[in-house]
Amino acid sequence: MDDVQILTEARNKVADRWIQGRDTDSIGGFCSIGAVRSAHMNYWVREHGSLPEVIAEQMGFNADQERVALHLNYAIRELYPEYEGYGEDTSIIPDWNDADGRTQEQVLEMFDRALKIVERDG
User: At what angle do helices 104-121 and 3-16 cross, to 10 degrees?
Assistant: First the structure.
């Protein structure tokens, strides 16, 4: 699984049209989590030709998506120390993405930091 490729595609989706409050919208908008989920599914189809039924039917994250999203969690915690107290899972991402006053630029900064974390830590 290529975390850099998935994070880069997810970042591009957010750069094109970022939203809050839901994973996706009808005109191509994505929140942080929705972008990761969509980019992962696109990656899987490119690599394998189709989605396995378990991924296609799954409402929540699968293990690969969770692992990729953890890079976003670490990025948030590095960029915003006030989130340091949150757990070691991806549960902070929706709250952070949807926070009042959050900007698209901040979300893109989070993706950029997550990409640096992958390069740094593997």
Answer: 170
> Would you say 30 and 23 are in contact if contact means Cβ atoms under 8 Å apart?
yes
CA distance 64 to 71: 12
Token pair belonging to 95: 């709250």
Spatial CA neighbour of 106 closest among 8, 11, 2, 9: 11
Phi, psi of 30 (to 5 degrees): -140, 140
Model confidence pLDDT, tens digit, residues 72-120: 999 998 998 887 656 666 678 888 999 999 999 999 999 999 999 999 9
- pTM, to two decimals: 0.86
The domain in which residue 44 lies consists of: 3-121
* Token pair listed for 5: 């490729």
Domain count, the chain: 1
Using CA atoms, how far apart are residues 115 and 6, in angstroms rounded to an integer? 10
Residue 11's DSSP bridge partners are none
Q: Which amino acid is at 61?
A: F
